[in-house]
Write a structure and sequence with these properties.
- It contains six helices and no strands.
- 8% of the residues are buried.
- Helix 1 packs antiparallel against helix 3 and helix 3 packs antiparallel against helix 4.
- It has one domain.
- The model has no long low-confidence stretch (mean pLDDT 84).
- The chain is mostly helical and 112 residues long.
- The protein is globular, with a radius of gyration of 16 Å.
């Protein structure tokens, strides 16, 4: 990962860098932030939907990034995406379903 992610002088990220940032660095930073500012138990209860939302989205991203799929992968993707959609409604108060959200519902069928 580049040291100065998000700055103009750093330029654009490659897809592998986006994947690394999204699936490794951001979840760890999020959990560290939860632990740092209050007790772990209190934050886990308060931010359970946020954490579930992030984990489901990462799960979907990791499945899509696979070079080959097993028979269980479309099922896992569908379960994660459904939970991601439900938790998005809780986490984001002004959540709107966009065409890309709808298209993602068809990904499991394309994986089979």
């Amino acid at each position: 990962m580049p040291k100065r992610v998000g700055t103009a002088q750093n330029g654009k990220l490659k897809s592998s860098e986006w994947h690394s940032l999204f699936s490794i660095h951001l979840p760890l930073a999020f959990i560290e932030t939860l632990v740092k500012f209050q007790t772990f138990d209190d934050d886990m209860v308060r931010y359970q939907s946020v954490l579930e939302n992030l984990c489901c989205l990462i799960g979907c991203t990791n499945i899509i990034s696979l070079k080959s799929y097993t028979n269980d992968d479309p099922i896992s993707f569908q379960k994660d995406y459904e939970k991601y959609t439900k938790t998005s409604e809780i986490v984001f108060s002004n959540h709107k379903v966009l065409p890309n959200h709808h298209y993602a519902l068809h990904i499991p069928d394309q994986m089979r």
